[in-house]
Amino acid sequence: MYRVLIIEDDFVIARSVQEHLSNWGFEVRYIENFKEVLAEFTSYEPQLILMDVTLPFFNGYHWCREIRQISSVPIVFVSSAGDNLNIVMAMNMGGDDFIVKPFDLNVLTAKIQAIIRRTYSFQGHANIIEYNGAVLNLGNATLSHEDKKIELTKNDFRLLQVLFESAGKVVSRDCLMTRLWEDENFVDDNTLTVNITRLRKKLEEIGLEDYIKTKKGIGYMIE
Q1: pTM
Q2: 3-121, superfamily in CATH?
Q3: CA angle, 25 as apex, 211 and 199 as ends, to 5°?
Q4: Residue 123 scores a pLDDT above 70
Q5: Which residues are reported to carry the modification 4-aspartylphosphate (predicted)?
Q6: How many other C-beta atoms lie within 10 A of the C-beta of residue 150?
Q7: Which of 64, 117, 144, 184 could link 93 by a cystine bridge, Cβ 3.0 to 4.6 Å?
């Protein structure tokens, strides 16, 4: 489930877009405090932003510039100011697309899906892997679920990456031990069990109880 952040001061439009995109399987939040846009972005970590140009306090170009200093997340400008000057300005500030109001919600959805496919699905190595509501960030070794996030140790990260890449399938204990043994420190069967137990406790902290299933005599899986 990809997260979309709407930065739009017309709350009728924001709620309408939120409802529509939610029906398409996106997790959507919109800004209500326009003094805390960057803080909201940082805490929510969206995979795509819909940005109006005219906003309270600072305009969309300002926030796009601020976000670009810390993230390359796709930013789609949505504005009634659709003249060439504003479109060029939006692209120069780091925007990825520009949609003119009024717009068709289905067209908006199609554009969002296309940008997300280009940004995440077709990369040789995606920045994130999502499965059943949990998001593994490969860039900073964190795991997010709903509004909670945990930092992962090197072993936590290696285990989860293998399990996410084989989501819905059983990963053998030998395969997991091989991944943990990448730094040449010997890993035996007991060490793997200890690491899995610790990782499960961390997952419980963010509401992911029983996320890792044991397949007796074979290995582990997430489902």
Answers
A1: 0.55
A2: Response regulator (3.40.50.2300)
A3: 15
A4: no
A5: 52
A6: 16
A7: 64
